[in-house]
Amino acid sequence: MNSIISALRTRFGARLSTVSDILARHGAGESYHRGMPPDVVVFAETTEEVSAIVTLCQAHRTPVIAFGAGTSLEGHVSAVNGGVCIDLTGMNRVLRISADDLDCTVEAGVTRLQLDRELRHTGMFFPLDPGADATIGGMAATRASGTNAVRYGTMRDAVLALTIVLADGQIIRTGRRARKSSAGYDLTRLFVGSEGTLGIITEVTLRLHGVPEAIAAASCTFPDVDSAVRTAVAVIQTGVPIARIELLDDAQINAVNRFSKLDLPVLDTLFFEFHGTPQSVAEQTEQVRAIAADFGGGVFRSAASQEDRTVLWQARHDAFYASTALRADSKGWSTDVCVPVGNLAQCIARTKQLLTATTVPATIVGHVGDGNFHVLFAVDTSNARELAEIAGISAALASLAIELDGTCTGEHGIGTGKIGYMVAEHGPAVEVMRLIKNAFDPAGILNPGKILPAPTQERNPH
Length: 462
Hints:
Vanillyl-alcohol Oxidase, Chain A, domain 3, Uridine Diphospho-n-acetylenolpyruvylglucosamine Reductase, domain 2, 7-stranded antiparallel beta sheet
């Protein structure tokens, strides 16, 4: 390792660090997962620099891990075998914006909020909002989505093309800007969600959308989670073109009231957002109001102004940190699953039953419009009994989602945290994934220990 560090230091000088605090920060995300620091961090500024680093790592068979904002939740950036971490935050240039084509190209280190600012006066916006100010490269690598996915899709739908550095240092582009193509394998979709195990994303071409003429939001309380979920399912089945539909259970509302100094009724609550013309937004709002009333909905509050919408959505955006703040000195353990919308009510009801088995503070929040929800635990990571208890509940929830023809993760990804569920979800297809990994990265240097289980690993031990 010393020879690699020496070679990198010669080229990158002050843009290389072996300081323990910096190493620790680059080996951990925002969850309970124990951080595993790399041996060295290099701050790259161009695709060519990334290529040079990877080429050196390939020659020395040294692990290499890409790092963006560090907001991941399943141990994606842990350096399980040490190695070189490439920090991409210096690659933060918006390279091109096209109003005619509703697209843009950005470097991997551009963050979501930075892109929002760049687009503010263009009449366009990038709709994906995972909550955290993640980098676009990281969002592509984990196939992120967020609150707008029910209408605008996930990163799988938003990414038109990628610039990738492969394990041998070769630089490729996976596609062009055309909205349709039948030319060969869909490499873009293959790399989106690959979590840095097949190549390192350095540039992303994104699909943009026109800013809606009118936007309105609303919230509605319900007597129980089941009524709220059935309302969400009915809204989707009715065909209302809703932009967002989010669930916060009563425990989550209590948490955000305390954290964000709000005074929302402590009841299971749905939050909605409507995009379109003023007339269509008004029609959507009334349709949803009527559907909610059919399922026992209580107070229905509308918010049309930007200021009112921001206040209303503050509760949703603060969910993770609010849940963690329920308990002093706790870490957030956030797990997510996704099921077909028709199975969502059953899945959440059974999840509520699972949560009765723990005294650890737990809340439910979710993008229920597409069948995806999260359970957030405020866990004492020094308490082995608690960790084992929550691991058991998380495993049961993942198994439940797979049983209901869903997935163990709708948007967090696999990382190290959910490797043990891959065989249960994908069966023999896991071995096909392993063939792909070996073809792209025969030396196994790219983010090792992520996504693919060891051949004998069947369950997630946490």
